[in-house]
Amino acid sequence: MTLTVHHLKRSQSERIIWLCEELNIPYELKVYAREPTLSAPEPYRNIHWSGTAPVIQDGELALAESGAIVEYILSKYGNGKLVIKPDQPNYADYLFWFHHANGSVQPTITTMVFAEFAKISPDDPGQLIMRNRFQIGLSGMDKRLGEFEYLAGNELTGADIMMVFSLTTMRLFLPYSLEEFPNIMAYLDRVGKREAYQRAMKKGDPDLRPVLDGIPQDTFF
């Protein structure tokens, strides 16, 4: 069976390409451009009933959701790499940052993006709450990365695979600055120098300059 990664350009599916490159496992990559509305094209939406990115196929299995896919690949093909085991002291840290990515950070950004689309005033109480929540999250992450090189400790893990998209490519949709968070900036510099990350970005989005700057130089809008 061949593991197939279906990549929607400029989307969370870049995580899965990066994961496969870090693990150095064989996989087939299929790349899809977004429609003018930024939606996934119909062939992509038909792979899994959810119609969302990312999605993989492994034999007869079609699986969506970033966290589920990352856990699936790590469990089935990872050979113990990029995970923290329950008997290790930083296991809880690994779990927290792994799930914090799509449990808190990404939903908060997405909510703010939709608010921009809807032209909701920045002074709207809901917007103020979201921005404050987001700043608290970034501050906590910056503190953590001042103590360790990566989120779960001093080695890259699945928690980083989950988090980096929200700090980089997602800023094409919401161009927020990271300049006041020097430890996050240093973290992104380390990630950007990883050969597996560089290969993944070139394969999935060859025309995109990775969004590793404090202030994004490019946006969708």
Automatic annotation (TrEMBL):
Superkingdom of origin: Eukaryota
Family note: Belongs to the GST superfamily.
Domain GST C-terminal: 87-210
EC number(s) given by UniProt: 2.5.1.18
One GO MF term: glutathione transferase activity
Keyword Transferase recorded: yes
Keywords, ordered alphabetically: Transferase
EC primary class: transferase
Catalytic activity annotation: RX + glutathione = an S-substituted glutathione + a halide anion + H(+)
Protein name listed in UniProt: glutathione transferase
Keyword Transmembrane: no
Matches recorded under PROSITE patterns: GST_CTER, GST_NTER
Gene Ontology CC terms, in alphabetical order: cytoplasm
Span of domain GST N-terminal: 1-81
InterPro entries, per database record: Glutathione-S-Trfase_C-like, Glutathione-S-Trfase_C_sf, Glutathione_S-Trfase, Glutathione_S-Trfase_N, GST_C, Thioredoxin-like_sf
